[in-house]
Amino acid sequence: MKPISSNMQFMITTFLSIYVLFISLASTRGDEAEAGFNYVPGSDIGPDRWGVINENWTTCSTGREQSPIDITEERIQEQPDLGRLLQKYQPAKATLKNQHIYIEVEWNGNGNAGSMTIDGILYNVSQFHWHSPSEHTINGQRYDLEMHIVHQNIDNETARAVVAVLYDIGHPDPFIRKLEPFIRNANNVEEQPIGLVDPREAQGIDTAKYYRYMGSLTVPPCTEGVVWTVLDNIRTVSTAQVDLLKQALPEDFRNNSRPLQNINDRTIGLYQNLKIHK
């Protein structure tokens, strides 16, 4: 057999490079097509067009109580009657899923991991996921990561309550560290059982100060009526951990934060337990 010439080697290498690039682009387009939207500003399916590219997503454009928002002092009203968060959580078996728009941890079974009660309404905790950078801002400050702990009403699946946890770059987050092997493998396996996961570890124990407002889902169809609780206790996460969550996603979803929405005539409730903060 004759040895391969340098020109032939060059042609083969070039062909393989183009092929890999094609497959990569095709994969990204497939993820976009599957989701039906992306986060790229100015894109035909970017955030400013979510409400017009699908007739079922019109609320993304026409809604008056959309999320996320900037939590500003002039809109905050202290509301002591909100009280401490009424949460009854427990460890339960969970699955880590690569949803392509974000990395999600879902508990196996409705209500297995516990619940939260707001205004007498019971919401079962169902899943949590991450957005980077943060979707919500506080007085204009954007954070490096935001986790959404999603709860659903037991009688009405469209009625949701979400707890938002914000992170700044700093020391690694111990809870995310436990999930790192599974997140690292999320490029290869879309669903992985990860054993028992405790919502209390995901959220953290300091809920003595939080903001409350009525908003929406931050992804299409942008359904409104979501009760948002944004914790004021800012946690830390390492740059490597944020990068790990990003690298598991297609390129057009690695910065997966919806732009801030108009607050319109909404007010933001503030609860803080001053005794705990003394």
Give the tags.
three-stranded mixed beta sheet; alpha+beta; globular; 7 helices; 13-stranded mixed beta sheet; 278 residues
**Computed CA radius of gyration, to the nearest angstrom:** 21 Å
Order of helices and strands: HHHEEEEEEEEEEEHEHEEEHEH
Round the mean pLDDT to the nearest integer and report it.
89
Number of strands: 16
Summed up, the helix count is 7
Helix content: 10-25%
Strand content: 25-35%
**Spatial separation of the terminal alpha carbons:** 82 Å
Query: Unreliable segments (pLDDT under 50, ≥5 consecutive)?
Result: 10-30
Summing up helix and strand content along with how strands pair, one would put the structural category as: alpha+beta
List the helices and strands and how they pair.
Blueprint: H1 6-35, H2 50-53, H3 59-62, E1 70-71, E2 76-78, E3 86-89, E4 92-98, E5 103-107, E6 114-118, E7 121-131, E8 137-138, E9 141-142, E10 145-153, E11 160-169, H4 174-184, E12 191-197, H5 199-203, E13 209-216, E14 224-231, E15 235-237, H6 239-247, E16 268-272, H7 274-277
Parallel strand pairs: 1-8, 2-16, 11-14, 11-15
Antiparallel strand pairs: 3-6, 4-5, 4-12, 5-7, 6-7, 7-10, 8-9, 10-11, 13-14, 13-16
Organism: Rhynchospora breviuscula
Function: Reversible hydration of carbon dioxide.
Domain Alpha-carbonic anhydrase: 35-272
